[in-house]
Every structure is written in structure tokens, then in C-alpha cells.
Amino acid sequence: MSRNLGFATALVGTIWLVGCGSTNPTAPITSPVPGQLSRAAADSTAGKIPRPSAAATPRDYRKDAARHIYDGNKDRIYDGKLPPMLYAVGTLQVNLDVNGKVISMHWMRAPTHAPEVIAEIERTVLEASPFPAAARMGKVTWTDTWLWDRGGHFQLDTLTEGQL
After folding, report:
1. pTM of the predicted model, to two decimals?
2. Which residues fall within 8 angstroms of residue 122, CB to CB, at 6 or more apart?
3. DSSP H or E stretch at residue 2
């Protein structure tokens, strides 16, 4: 009897673990993730497979994640030094699973005076998913500050060209 109970427990545990995993790490995120302040969702992320990250620390990973955002938003990146007065500044933590898929967000400093910027940053992050997989770390939390001008262009603090 105890042998059957042990087998049943192992079987249930295995089925539970399989159910916890993502069935498709490149599937678009179509509903808000925990920590989002807006209802933004990705238009499409299907088929995106980023290069892996060799970063050994979250600080090193910031550059890979920021470059990944820049690569997908070339026309929205502010070129040159930012103006002295920015429209919005927000600091966002993004929690990524081992495959680079966004699993949650946490605003450390949300630009609450500009809810449209919050939604646009969240949508941009969700559309960039999956991010480069942090092969040396597994799950990772990427934290960056978004510097936003009135025209809808931005830089990330990690790759900023500075401010006038």
C-alpha cells in the first residue's frame, strides 16, 4: 500500500510540475502580468528568439536587456542627449523566467502623472518578451530607468547618452 502511495505522490508531483511550466515560451503575453499598472498587452511576440545572454550578474544583464529593447524600438529611441526637462521618468523591475519571458513587473518609481507612458512602457516590455535568456543565472530581475520625452521617444538609463 505504501509503495502505491509513494508512486501516486510522485506521479501527482510530476504532473503538477509539468503544469507549472510554460507550454510555449515565445507565445505572446495577452493579459496583464502581476505588478502591471495598466491593461497593456503585447500585440505580437510570436516567433521571436533572442540571442542568449552570457551575463553573470543582474547588473551585467541590464546591458543585454536594454540592447534588446533598443533593437526592437529603433525609431523610438531618442537620438543624442536628452532635453533638460523630461516628460516622464520611471524605474521598472521586470522579472524574467529562465527562457527570458516576462513573469511579473514591479514599479519602483512609476510616472503616475503620465498613465499613457506607464502603459506604453509596459506594452514595450511585453512585446520585447522573450528577452535574452540569462543562461548563467536562470531567472533574473532586470531593473532599468526609462527616460521619456514629450514626443514619445525614450532612452534607458543603462544606455543613455546623457542629458543637456
Report:
1. 0.78
2. 36, 37, 38, 40, 105
3. helix 2-20
End-to-end C-alpha distance for the chain, whole angstroms: 75
The cell numbers describing 104, all together, are: 511579473
Cell numbers describing residue 98: 529562465
Cβ(25)–Cβ(130) under 8 Å? yes
Tens digit of each residue's pLDDT (9 = 90 or more) over 24-70: 445 556 567 888 788 888 776 555 677 899 999 999 999 999 999 99
Which region, left, alpha or beta, applies to residue 104 given φ > 0 means left and ψ of -120 to 50 means alpha? beta
* Cβ count within 10 A of residue 162: 8
Grid cell in block for residue 134 = 540569462
CA-CA-CA-CA dihedral for 34, 94, 164, 70, to nearest 10: -110
Dist CA 146 CA 71 (whole Å): 16
